[in-house]
Amino acid sequence: MNNQHRPSKRPRTAFGDATGTSTDAGSQQQQQQQQQQPSTASTSIAASDQANVEERDVILDLYSLIESKQWQEATIRAKEHPETISDCSREPSMLALCCREGAPYECIEAVVNAAPHKIRELLDARGTPLHEAIVCESTDPRVVAYLLQLDERLETTGTGPSTTQRRAAISQDVDGYTPLHLVIRRRFQSHVLGTDQASPMLEILELLVQSCAEAIVISDRGEYEEPPIVMALKADVYAPMLQSDAEETTMAQIERHIYNMVECMLQHYPQAASRVFKGYRGHYTALHSAVFHGRSPDTIALLLDAERRAPSPQKACLLGNTQGELPLHFCAMRGEPPRTVRLLAEAAPEAITQRDASGLTPMHWLWIRFVSTLLAMEDGRGNFITLPLRRHRSQEQNDALAFASLRQSDFDADLQLLRRIDPSVDFLRMRHIPVEVQEESDALHWAEKTALLLMGIRDRFQNTTGGDNATETVPLNRLEAVATLFWVKVTSLLGILARDGVEEGSEDGQLAKAKLVKTAFESECCPPLVARLVALLLPEELSSPDASGRVALHYAAMRPWHAWAWPREDGTSDAASLRLLHLESGSLLRNAMSLSPQEAAKQIDCDGRLPLHYMISTCIQACSAGGRSACEDPLLEMVEILGYFVQLNPESLNVRDPRTGLYPFLQASAEATEARLTNTYSGTIHEEFPLSIVYLLLREDPSHIQRGSS
């Protein structure tokens, strides 16, 4: 074959022929290089996987070190790998785990420096790392202080992911507990029992309060929605080992520690004392909780003082629950110490006269609880002890109380003494009214017995303390001591009422202080037998007129016949409280008449009126008022008492009433007519009731018809 017929070769180019030898060699070399070296993408993926493995190993290693509490190694690793800790999204965070396990300050610091925003990371079931630190009892207070400083710093810098989150100090776990809740709930028992001799509880509590005072009033999510101030006041309730027959020393420790917690909170946030919370029985304040749970008078004084420093429109002492019970009601119902009674009454004298939903005042409850204690002692349920009765002449005291001071001027001694003599009752028994209190004859027995006891104590005391020795004592048995405590409470309330009715700076101030009998018979808050007891102890006041020229009988005749005391026509007034209040004003008036000298019925006051004139007005007003039934019992009681008035002073029928210028029977007629014309009530008492009073007075001396028309 000729060579010219062979296919010609393609010309070479600088890049070589696409099908030529040079091109094939380059392709093979490139393929070999591709097979020998991985691609750039594969290299990046592999490097990333390797980094992830290393990071995962570091995380696992750190968690393992923390869980095994190898704090030194964990601290070193945390400092070496801060970015790993910062980026870790595992729950719980390393900071939370460190706080849970009680890591030392240095380890916490290293972890925090790597991821400060983790302080506000909230797990519903566990809370924030700060919650974890509080729950761990081995946590150093320095750690808590450091975490709180970090929490504050994040709040003020305004940078970082945690600034949009709530502060750790007020964050709430699944139960609604803030760290302040937890320090009380989880640490109080061991703190009191001294299982940790150097318990930092109060130090940690103060750190929390200083850092974020508003946490004091944040309610939890429990049944009672309690803020820390309330949880502190009932801290012993959450300490089961403190509930069973606590010794007196333990009881004193409980009160002292609760006092310290409340003092710390109110020092930094006094507004907590007047904050109103929503509770099981309506709205309440910290004061309600303190009295209800029987806190010491010193703690009560803390709350009242804080409220004075940071007052609110609603005064705590005058806030009632759904049953109309004020703190003073709680105090009387439980049988709290005299100083607590006095503190509450002085803070709000109006509370003394307030009635709860059952119609009872604090003084009614004092009498009920006193008789209940006497009944328990009579049944042998009381421990019979002998103790001293001490007089403190340095204190300003009413003469009526001079023989009845049991205070030792020492926190623990006062608490132990009073709780031993007359322990408070719990919430299950505090509203119980014994049958013996409801029966007038039984109650009269206790009143007479108490009067004799107190007279004997006073005589012994006066005979023993004739000199100037300020600390002489008189031994008392428990029955005498209980009677003495009751006397102090009653006369304290009456003394406050007497002072409250006199303008400040009045020259009659001292006179009003001494008129306890007058106040007892005048005030609607005082039960008849309590007034009788006061009159038996201070009989000279029955015949001693006050600045208005009135004696106790005047005030008893002026006291209104309250609707509570008016029995129902259908006889369904079976409630214990209503039986106790049955015809109360009539009973009180009978006691005043039986104890007063006959001259008291002839005493004309500065307005020219006799007790009879006031009694007529009171009866007409009661019969004409709305809300009464048509029951005849009150009318029969009034008619009988008016008859006694006339017997004590027959000449009173011939004395015109200065207000109307009429003789008594015409006074009654005029006032009855006036009441009928002005009365807008529906369903009032039958009109013949007032007319029965007119008829009685006229029947006593029919000649007044002729005299009255002239």
Automatic annotation (TrEMBL):
Species for this entry: Nitzschia inconspicua
UniProt key word Coiled coil: no
Keyword Kinase: no
Keywords assigned: ANK repeat, Repeat
Lineage: Eukaryota, Sar, Stramenopiles, Ochrophyta, Bacillariophyta
Compositional bias of kind Basic residues: 1-12
Region of interest called Disordered, as start-end residue ranges on this chain: 1-50
Matching SMART domains: ANK
UniProt cross-references to InterPro entries, sorted A to Z: Ankyrin_rpt (IPR002110)
The protein's name in its UniProt record: Ankyrin repeat domain protein
Ranges of biased composition (kind: Low complexity): 19-50
